[in-house]
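FAQ: What does a multi-protein file look like?

Like this. Sequence, then tokens, then the next protein.
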Amino acid sequence: MTTASDRVPLREVLRLAAPALPVLAAEPLYLLVDTAVVGRLGAVPLAGLAVAAVVFAQVTSQLNFLSYGTTARAARLHGAGRGGDAVGEGVQATWLALAVGVLVLGVGQLVARPVAEFLGDGGEIADAATSWLRVALCGAPMVLVTLAGNGWMRGVQDTARPLRIVLAGNALSALVCPVLVHGVGEWPGIGMVGSAVANVTGQSVAATLFLVALVRAARAGAVPLRPAPVVLRAQLALGRDLLARSLAFQACFLSAAAVATRFGAATAAAHQIVLQLWFFQALVLDAVAIAAQALVGAALGSPERGAQRARALAGQVARYGLVLGIGFGVLFAVLITVLPPVFTPDPAVLQVVPVAWWFFAAMQPVAGVVFALDGVLLGAGDAAFLRTSTLAAAVIGFLPPIWASLAFGWGLAGIWSGLTAFMLLRLVAVGLRARSDRWIVTGAVRA
């Protein structure tokens, strides 16, 4: 039975969630800067950047288990009072990040041209995308080290330092990008490849700062810096489940984009506007989920009333997510005539946007609860359940309406009905799981 003492003060949740939000938003916001800088070079470089950046983002986003999985494992150890072992999870995650990053770099160089030709339809766009991607891939190991660094620091409930480190790297990239792309004085710059060089520079600075922090923490706690195969295998097992879950998301959203384009440019553009707002809004709600991961993991690792505290936290963050979701739903409903024209003046596109917009606004409360409980279950290390439930929701709820909308001409209504069904099925799944005790496994390490 939970008591008032098991509740975590709201200020504690905000202490972890508030710094996490800028970290989550840093990369999307920097891509907007990147797009604006390269856009001044003309249509072909901008199209090349669009193709290459999507490929690079897909590769790195699929490996976010280095962050989420490490948070879950480190948080349990932190809650159990084993601070040195929690830092050790960061050491092993960093070794894994370096190994996978080098693999991504090598394979990426081999497939960069074929992938760019396929997505860019050959010609000048594929040439531009390939040149950018080959340079940007050099930053893959650094991006993955940063993910691992975020993971172990969140696990020990330190979200302030990751904020400073990530903002330092992104600020440097934003400052040098215009100079490298367009030049300064009599130097003409190096064109769109300068954008990739700026990315790698900022990523290298962030990764170096995370490595310095990790080495200092390891030395302070007498933590070995060498690889530990047992821990690496456990991290890979958790990563496998999170990777499968992430692939389910990508299959759904890529299918939705493919179907939307077949209804014409206006429908595709309207879908893109609302979907990007959905992704950005997910970042806000994910900040609460990150706080839930750290707090629930620490509670389950604690030897005293860990199960009761974790159960109380699940109820708390679900309510916080619901309140946020209702607030955002009302806000976006009010902004339906104000916000879409910010993205495009095209009347054909603006006419179609409301079809998806009302689904988007109505789903905010559902999304608030789902993302919050996702964080709870991730913090508990319940990745296998999340993998299976997400795959089931995708196969049953998302994909059939999307492809049926193409067959029967339902357009955006069919596509966003699929997304709504997907979220509702996930709500039922995580809600029932959270009400049960099957996710509550106490101890420093989840068996």
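And here is the next protein:
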Amino acid sequence: MKLLFKICFWSIFLSSLSVFGQNIQWAKDQMLIFTSQWKGERFPDGRPKVSDDLVKRLANISIEEAWGTMKNEGYNNQFEGGWQIIHPDKVLAGRVLTTQYMPSRPDLDNPIKEKGKAEGRLGSPNSWPIDLLQYGDVYVADGYGKIVDGTLIGDNLGNSIYAKSKTGVVFDGAIRDLEGLENIDGFVGFIRGADPSYIKEMIMTCINCPIRIGRVSVFPGDLVLGKREGVIFIPAHLAEKVIINSEFIALRDKFGIQRLKEGKYTPGQIDQAWTREIKDDFLKWINENPKLLPMTRAELDKFMKDRNW
């Protein structure tokens, strides 16, 4: 069975590289294979649709806590650092829409442009993914690190991206019109660099396909969280677990810091496995401070039922 799955997996993957037999945007059945562990709502194209509530809460968790939970689940390559950041004082959080770019060659460029025209896509290929963005999406592009002539957007496309998504971008590539993009209040960009050149000698090859961003394999429908450290990509099926676990850890830390300041416990007591006395004190503290909960009380109770403190 495993061998059969691998054969089917790679057959679909390799066939997707042929622009003659496939659409520019990955088909729903291809999306379902790569995101089969997601059991929730989906967009019409098959991309996982993590709830708006979880996306909103995502912005408030720490990258370290998210990384720890995913590492425990076997996802060891989900973080990428070393970015130039547009508006580093703001957080980037949303659902991923992916696109891949490759170096140009005539027998690649021409069929893609013809296929795009046949599908009714307007403008140059680097604008096609932007047409698909919805509120809460983050445009994530594999531009293979190209800087000079690798500028995927300028301020015009940046304004369009923000108008549609209210988020920003993650580009393993470059942008132009940096000053103009910085003038878009709320737009957050993680980029490899900025250059005044126009995009040249590269072609957009697929939309909503698995891509590589540095050391991360990114799937459409993943959640992305970007902060000063860098960006972390969370598989859709782990989103709820990662977010609630991160929120719980932050809640524990807030309680522990308060009790340390009050002198009620020693650092040794807080940093090691909690005694029954501290656990009961924590639960009492939660009851007395319901407004501090980032999740619903029902979500917290369900989480703590299976929690090994």
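Q: Is there any per-entry metadata?
A: Some entries carry free-text notes. For the entry above: The longest strand covers residues 92-103.
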